[in-house]
Amino acid sequence: MAELINLVLLAMLALTALRIIFLKDLFAVIMLFGIFSFLSALIFINLDAVDVAFTEASVGAGISTVLMLGTLALTGRKEKANSHSSFLPLVVVCITGAALIYGTLDMPDFGDPDNPVHQHVAPRYIEESPKEVGLPNMVTSVLASYRGFDTLGEVVVVFAALIAVLSLLSIRKETEQDASESGLKSHHVLHVVAKLVIPLIILFALYVQFHGDFGPGGGFQAGVIAAAALILYALVFGLPNAFAVIGAKFLYCMASAGVLLYASVGLFSMYKGGNFLDYNKIAAEPLAGQHYGIIIIELGVGITVFAVMLSIFYAFSSQTARSNIK
């Protein structure tokens, strides 16, 4: 049954990708990209990779769709006619695809229990992580402890993405537009539903943030979910009201503070005589140090991801609102 579900999902994924290639309506393309991410999340769930599915659903099908719609509002709905020949791009795609397929020939068979990952890597984490880290969720143990330095690099990349976006699009406050005239003022049902849903979204984000040690979740997912709550607030009640709740300058401070909080854990562990991000040195008990270190660095991840996602949305939305005013 699991193989049948995988085949059906992969077939739907392939059909969605093919439809995306031939569509000229960019709004429909964005919607299909969201469906593509949702199907990918279902495949990850079927493969028991719930943490990856959680991230794909929240980032791929959620925030990315909103940001692409913001981009569409600045560019246009229809793809411009292409007067160039498609022969050269077709050749490049075929050569690249052939190289990728050739590269997979040396890979071990999918699901083979004799694969090196099942003989060496997985047993090491399964057997030793409860003793060395002490967390029920081994995915969090790997990402936050064993691969803590790599995860720090990922957070820095997210922060660098914010710098890249802000270097191209600045966040403009809507001084020319009154806050009462923005948002969905006449949609009273949406106002009531948003007021009921937004606190629940934030509560769920906090649950995901501080429950990642025991189940699927963590700073990346929690930051995106919390940003989604503020984005919903901005869409329903207007961007100026969102600025009044959390301003752009405060978000800049949050984005940098999250990265610094993560890095400070590593520096503190070095100060205590250990290596960088050696959580065992944070407390007298090594397992307690692991718990404290992971909670703090996950909090830093959540703060940075939340601030970056919301800042990027502010950048796109403020440009759109300004163009509508003009």
TrEMBL record:
It is found in: Cell membrane. It comes from Thalassotalea eurytherma. It comes from the Bacteria. The chain crosses the membrane at residues 6-22, 27-45, 57-75, 87-105, 151-171, 192-210, 222-243, 250-271, 291-316. Belongs to the CPA3 antiporters (TC 2.A.63) subunit B family. It is a multi-pass membrane protein. This is DUF4040 domain-containing protein. The keyword Transmembrane applies. Residues 189-310 form the Na+/H+ antiporter MnhB subunit-related protein domain. The keyword Flavoprotein does not apply. Residues 115-170 form the MrpA C-terminal/MbhE domain. PANTHER family: NA(+)/H(+) ANTIPORTER SUBUNIT B, NA(+)_H(+) ANTIPORTER SUBUNIT B. NCBIfam families: PRK12504.1 (NF009159), PRK12507.1 (NF009161), PRK12508.1 (NF009162). Pfam families: MbhD, MbhE, MnhB. Keywords: Cell membrane, Membrane, Transmembrane, Transmembrane helix. Residues 11-76 form the MrpA C-terminal/MbhD domain.
